[in-house]
Design a protein that fits this description.
- The chain is of the alpha+beta class and 75 residues long.
- It has 1 helix and 4 strands, in the order βαβββ.
- Strands 1-4-3-2 form a 4-stranded mixed sheet, with no helix packed on it.
- The longest helix is centred in the first third of the chain and has 13 residues.
- The two termini are 14 Å apart.
């Protein structure tokens, strides 16, 4: 997952916030996502698993170097 030095991560923990996140995604020009896994060998069956997704809607780098709009959706 993104290093906390560069990102302020918000964990999506309820359906209400998931709906808000969906609305943000619909209104954004860009959507960036990454699959988070339990290890490094996800292509080997049975070793590692998808544990969540990380989303961001930032269109450009922030002035202070920290992404404010990063969201983690646990599976």
């Amino acid at each position: 997952m993104f290093h906390t030095e560069y990102c302020k991560v918000t964990v999506v923990q309820d359906e209400e916030f998931l709906e808000e996140l969906y609305e943000m995604a619909k209104q954004s020009e860009y959507l960036y996502w990454d699959t988070e896994t339990s290890g490094l060998k996800v292509r080997v069956v049975g070793n590692d698993f998808v544990v969540g997704w990380t989303l961001s809607f930032d269109d450009e780098l922030p002035d202070e170097g920290v992404y404010e709009k990063v969201y983690y959706l646990p599976v």
